[in-house]
């Protein structure tokens, strides 16, 4: 009798547990984890202040302002500064950087994990400069695509007339241009918007800028990916665009599984290209087209790009080989277990990430470099593909522990 009752009870429990599990899985699908915005858990604007306060600016310039004894850190569009790329370039350049600090009698900056996150977010943003574009070609496109019909500015302006070409200039920075393209009024009579391919929009913007090159976009430095994630929900993007196939499917997925245009001005072009189709979809769904301020557009862009710059994945097995192969094992032991000359790194309940590796470099690097010199070994260089594997290895439990 009792055993039958026990059976019933346990069946009920099992069913409840299953339902709970199902519920959790459903919830996880419906609620993308907040860690997506974890990459810029750093704030670029705080990073900009640290870059000055910690003395980086005495040697490094960003967009031409700062010292010139070290590489410029704000140029080179081809090098995207994801956290793992930053760790690798700092790691490999560190001994020479410290040598210069010593020579110049600049104290080694002490950086905590949050500060490294802030600096990385700033350096990442500083690299997100757009291409300046070809103003002459832009001028031809401006006519060809019919922008000059309204923005030609040949007629005497009235209060209602569209802004003149000259006044478009005030919107001619990447984030402001994206805001302008998003907020742009529809063309009359449901006209299809003329399409912009690849760098066309950069050329048009260059024309509006009269060829002046693009500097650091301060709107982006002030941006906040967490606010962008909030806007993404509040402005109803989420009703039509899923991020990982879990929500709206009316428009294309905008999550990390799909490439976004390479630069912000190209994203602006894509928003323009799709504006009519998107408006129609909104009408059909009874969604009012949201408007954006410059700051809001900056936050949204920071969010959309940040979820693509997440931590690299990797294999702990490969990481173990790399760890020893790169020479880390000669001090930390082949399995990272520690030796008398360097501490053990694994199984200490810490989670490594690109940010914490960067922090370890600033906190322990000079001491590490001293041992390198004492032992007469080579400073271990890293390559970009190593970081994900190394992190996976450092985060795995040492043998004998689970
Ligand atoms: C005393 C001058 C000096 C200071 C201060 C300094 N650096 Fe450097 N840094 C250098 C030099 C020199 C190099 C290039 C070393 C080489 O040639 O390998 C470098 C390289 C780098 C690189 C790699 C550059 C590349 O081309 O990939 C990064 C990233 C970097 N530093 C970041 C920082 C940050 C962040 C700070 C402040 C916390 C800082 N540096 C402070 C001198 C300095
Ligand atoms: C049918 C007329 C018309 C056409 C064609 C047109 N625009 Fe506009 N545009 C406007 C109006 C009207 C505004 C002002 C909207 C407002 O104030 O919200 C505007 C605003 C803008 C702004 C923002 C200006 C600011 O200072 O905020 C930009 C940038 C812009 N247009 C670029 C373009 C480009 C590039 C093209 C060609 C692809 C184009 N426009 C085609 C009518 C037009
Ligand atoms: C009512 C549905 C709907 C809403 C709401 C919506 N979109 Fe869209 N969006 C679409 C559709 C449909 C397309 C594809 C249009 C086409 O095929 O030309 C699209 C296309 C896009 C594209 C171009 C994608 C590409 O392939 O490059 C971007 C970027 C975009 N939307 C951003 C946004 C953002 C940001 C928001 C929130 C502010 C938003 N959308 C809100 C329906 C929507
Ligand atoms: C020449 C010896 C040597 C080599 C080679 C070496 N390290 Fe270190 N490492 C040290 C020493 C010594 C410390 C502790 C420094 C201190 O106490 O400030 C350290 C500290 C660290 C820390 C910080 C530990 C903590 O508790 O926060 C990390 C992470 C680290 N090393 C990773 C590496 C990686 C990854 C490599 C290979 C790419 C490497 N090390 C190569 C000697 C070395």
- How would a textbook summarize the main sheet? 2 strands, antiparallel
Bound molecules: heme C
Number of strands: 2
Strand order of the largest sheet: 1-2
H and E string: HHHEEHHHHHHHHHHHHHHHHH
Unreliable stretches: 7-13, 16-40
The shape, in one word, is elongated
N-to-C span: 42 Å
Number of helices: 20
What is the strand content?
Answer: under 5%
Radius of gyration: 26 Å
The averaged pLDDT comes out at 83
How many separate structural domains? 3
What class, by secondary structure content?
mainly alpha
Helix amount, in percent?
A: 40-55%
Fold blueprint:
Blueprint: H1 2-30, H2 44-53, H3 56-59, E1 61-62, E2 65-66, H4 83-103, H5 113-127, H6 135-144, H7 147-151, H8 165-168, H9 174-183, H10 200-208, H11 218-221, H12 225-234, H13 237-240, H14 264-273, H15 275-285, H16 294-306, H17 316-325, H18 329-332, H19 354-375, H20 386-395
Helix pairs in contact: 2-5, 4-19, 5-19, 6-10, 9-14, 9-16, 10-14, 12-16, 17-20
The chain binds heme C (4 copies).
Attribute tags:
elongated, 53% helix, 20 helices, Cytochrome Bc1 Complex, Chain D, domain 2, 3 domains, mainly alpha, 402 residues, binds heme C, two-stranded antiparallel sheet
Characterize this entry briefly.
By secondary structure, the protein is mostly helical.
What would you note in describing this structure?
This protein is mainly α. It has three domains: 38-127, Cytochrome c-like domain (Cytochrome Bc1 Complex, Chain D, domain 2, Orthogonal Bundle), CATH 1.10.760; 135-152 and 161-306, no CATH class; 316-395, Cytochrome Bc1 Complex, Chain D, domain 2. The chain is built from 20 helices and two strands. The chain has helices at residues 2-30, 44-53, 56-59, 83-103, 113-127, 135-144, 147-151, 165-168, 174-183, 200-208, 218-221, 225-234, 237-240, 264-273, 275-285, 294-306, 316-325, 329-332, 354-375, 386-395, and strands spanning 61-62, 65-66. A two-stranded antiparallel ribbon has the order 1-2. Helix 5 crosses helix 19. The chain binds heme C (4 copies). One heme C binds at residues 235-237, 239-241, 250-252, 270-271, 274, 277-278, 281-282, 285, 287, 290, 300.
């Amino acid at each position: 009798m009792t055993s039958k009752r026990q059976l019933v009870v346990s069946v009920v429990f099992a069913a409840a547990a299953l339902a709970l599990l199902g519920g959790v899985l459903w919830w996880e699908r419906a609620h993308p984890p907040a860690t997506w915005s974890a990459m810029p858990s750093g704030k670029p604007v705080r990073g900009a202040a640290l870059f000055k306060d910690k003395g980086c600016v005495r040697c490094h310039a960003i967009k031409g302002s700062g010292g010139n004894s070290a590489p410029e850190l704000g140029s080179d569009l081809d090098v995207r500064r994801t956290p793992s790329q930053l760790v690798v370039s700092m790691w490999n350049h560190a001994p020479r950087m410290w040598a210069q600090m010593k020579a110049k009698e600049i104290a080694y900056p002490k950086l905590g994990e949050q500060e490294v996150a802030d600096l990385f977010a700033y350096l990442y943003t500083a690299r997100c400069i757009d291409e300046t574009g070809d103003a002459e070609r832009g001028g031809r496109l401006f006519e060809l695509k019919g922008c000059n019909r309204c923005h030609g500015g040949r007629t005497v302006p009235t209060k209602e007339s569209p802004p003149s070409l000259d006044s478009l200039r005030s919107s001619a920075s990447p984030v402001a241009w994206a805001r302008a393209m998003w907020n742009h009024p529809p063309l009359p009579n449901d006209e299809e918007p003329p399409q912009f391919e690849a760098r066309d929009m950069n050329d048009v913007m260059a024309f509006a800028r009269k060829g002046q090159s693009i500097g650091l976009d301060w709107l982006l430095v002030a941006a906040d990916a967490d606010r962008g994630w909030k806007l993404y929900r509040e402005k109803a993007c989420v009703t039509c665009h899923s991020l990982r196939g879990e929500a709206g499917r009316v428009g294309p997925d905008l999550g990390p599984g799909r490439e976004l245009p390479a630069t912000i001005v190209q994203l602006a072009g894509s928003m323009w290209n799709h504006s009519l189709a998107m408006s129609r979809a909104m009408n059909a769904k009874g969604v009012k087209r949201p408007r954006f301020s410059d700051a809001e557009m900056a936050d949204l862009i920071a969010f959309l790009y940040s979820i693509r710059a997440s931590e690299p994945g990797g294999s702990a097995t490969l990481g173990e080989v790399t760890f020893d192969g790169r020479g880390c094992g000669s001090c930390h032991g082949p399995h990272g277990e520690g030796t008398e000359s360097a501490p053990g790194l694994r199984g200490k309940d810490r989670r490594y990430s690109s940010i914490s590796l960067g922090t370890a470099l600033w906190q322990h690097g000079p001491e590490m470099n001293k041992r390198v010199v004492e032992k007469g070994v080579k400073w271990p260089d890293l390559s970009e593909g190593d970081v994900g594997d190394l992190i996976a290895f450092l985060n795995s439990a040492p043998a004998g522990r689970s």
